[in-house]
Write a structure and sequence with these properties.
Layout lengths: L1 E3 L2 E3 L17 H7 L15 H12 L4 H18 L2 H17 L3 H19 L7 H13 L3 H17 L10
Antiparallel strand pairs: 1-2
Helix pairs in contact: 2-3, 2-4, 3-4, 4-5, 5-6, 6-7
Protein name: Tetratricopeptide repeat protein
Organism: Dictyostelium discoideum
InterPro entries: TPR-like_helical_dom_sf
Length: about 170
């Protein structure tokens, strides 16, 4: 099988396979999705235990996977305990990203979808800044070679842009 621009070209006897897309750290999404007021970003708040655990866990990815997994799991537990929805959504993303790095895409997709559901509760279904997260979810489905869910997620991505009277970027990765 050959691929061009991550589009599968099946060979006669194979199942379609995709190039494994790169999925960047979810930290880049948090600034777009956080509801912290722009004016208050200058006055840095004291981070919670969940946030500190997430930061140290993310820093350990690729260096010490055991520590990364432990810290990110504890971050999720702390976020669940303190019931802050943004922290919970962020912790789900962090642990989901960890599972991407271990190629456990089933766990990753579960965590990313749970995070997306929380961000939608916070911002509403048509919040344009959800686009990058939705695209990351599509990429995870692509890593799983799950063409059906990949296509449904890309359609959701395109619908988000349409609902915001915007044109989606022409490339997906």
């Amino acid at each position: 099988m050959s691929t061009t621009n991550n589009t599968p070209t099946p060979t006669p006897t194979s199942t379609p396979q995709y190039n494994k897309p790169s999925i960047l750290s979810p930290v880049r999404l948090l600034e777009k999705l956080s509801k912290i007021d722009e004016g208050s970003r200058e006055n840095t708040p004291i981070p919670s235990t969940a946030t500190l655990l997430m930061i140290t866990g993310m820093q350990s990815i690729g260096k010490n996977q055991k520590v990364a997994g432990e810290k990110l799991t504890k971050a999720l537990e702390a976020a669940e305990k303190n019931k802050n929805q943004e922290e919970l959504a962020a912790a789900l993303l962090g642990l989901g990203y960890f599972y991407i790095t271990t190629t456990d895409y089933d766990k990753s997709i579960q965590l990313y979808n749970a995070s997306l559901a929380i961000w939608k509760q916070i911002h509403g279904n048509d919040f344009i800044h959800l686009a990058d997260l939705i695209l990351d979810i599509a990429k995870i489905y692509q890593c799983q070679n799950n063409e059906v869910e990949f296509k449904k997620t890309i359609e959701s991505y395109q619908t988000l842009f349409k609902n915001n009277n915007k044109t989606p970027p022409t490339t997906c990765g």
